[in-house]
Amino acid sequence: MLAVECDKAAGFAELTLDGAMTGDEYAKVISAIDDALQSHDKLNLVCVLRHFGPVDWSIWPKDLVFHATHRNWMKHVAIVSDMGWVEPTMKVFAPFYAAEIQCFPLAKLDEARAWARTGSITRAAD
């Protein structure tokens, strides 16, 4: 399941992937992002990756077109996951994006949301 929640007024979107991804789910995400980009040049984004399941093959060419036509649309991107391969993969692809990207474990989802919205983290004293 791929879901999106947008705060269009704030220029913020949160995507959650938990299992398989269908073409209809992907289309709803792209529509929500495009709608938010009508009001903002760039969006702050949180991507919560709980479980990566099968992906409908029709999504891959659409995703390539999306990335080719949407350049520099992200400002802060928080990638939130406990899957061990996610952070190293993001480090490989981060230089291709004109965005500040940080990875967080699922236990720090609220911190990731705060960082994505503001670009800074206020940490409580230990």
TrEMBL record:
Pfam family, one: SpoIIAA-like
Domain of life: Bacteria
Protein's UniProt name: STAS/SEC14 domain-containing protein
InterPro entries: SpoIIAA-like, SpoIIAA-like_sf, STAS_dom_sf
Organism in which the protein naturally occurs: Novosphingobium ginsenosidimutans
